Prior knowledge:
The protein has 269 residues and is of the alpha/beta class. It has helices spanning 16-27, 48-56, 73-83, 103-113, 143-149, 165-171, 182-192, 220-238, 244-253, 258-268; strands at residues 4-10, 36-42, 63-66, 89-94, 98-99, 119-127, 133-137, 162-164, 197-208. It has 2 domains: 4-213, Spore Coat Polysaccharide Biosynthesis Protein SpsA, Chain A, CATH 3.90.550; 215-269, no CATH class. Helix content is 40%, strand content 20%. The model has no long low-confidence stretch (mean pLDDT 92).
Amino acid sequence: MQDVAVVISVYDGDDPENLRLALESIFNQSYSEGCINVYLVCDGPLDELLLNVVEDFSKSIKKLIKLKRNGGLANALNEGIRSVGEEEVVIRMDADDICDHERFLTQVSFLNNNPEVSVVGSNVILINQDGCELKEVFFPERHGDILRAFSVKSPLAHPAVCMRREVIDSVGLYNERLRKAQDLEYWFRVAEKGFRFHNIQEPLLFYRVSDGFGRKKNGLSSSFRLLKINVLGHWRVFGLRANYFMIFSRAIFRLLPSSLYSYIYRRYR
């Protein structure tokens, strides 16, 4: 089996037990353990409990990158990506999610069997803070459907993504000026370069959500920044063919009263 790089970031606000479960799910993959190279970024100082978990896995981690201060997810991921060695496949993972046992083998095999695809994601199962399954979230499968879904939502689950190294070499790193929606902005740049997407129609990741999942998080300035990402991204990728009505409708939706926003988000996500 070919070596794969797994880039994961942890910060002081993460739960130690969730981090342990996340790392266990990586090292217990059906994919050959000796071919899984984990690049763990400590995004700023960690508390003792988190450090203990990191220490427990230190012999299995390919490289531990310790940042002096918390610089945000985009910055941490970029530091992890810069540290990646010769691996031709890069896998994303978050510090509180859990990989399905077959995730890596399924995604890497798909890339090997479908050379025209460069980025492969999957469906996810939402779990709460106690690890109880909430529901499966489905993502569009084929490249054309994924492109059309950009006007409705981010069409890939970021921590469920596996991509070829050539994507990063061509597109570059995440935009560190963005505190949110870094993944959406990145996928627009990937699409602009002509790379093809695919989502495997199996839940290969257990995606942990907080108790506040579905509650309104975006103020006016945050909603405007997200609108800007969407408008500019659609213009670069689709030009006049983009569904700008849907894009502006989504922006208005984020400005609804919190109770109505939460109901619609939970009901129709």
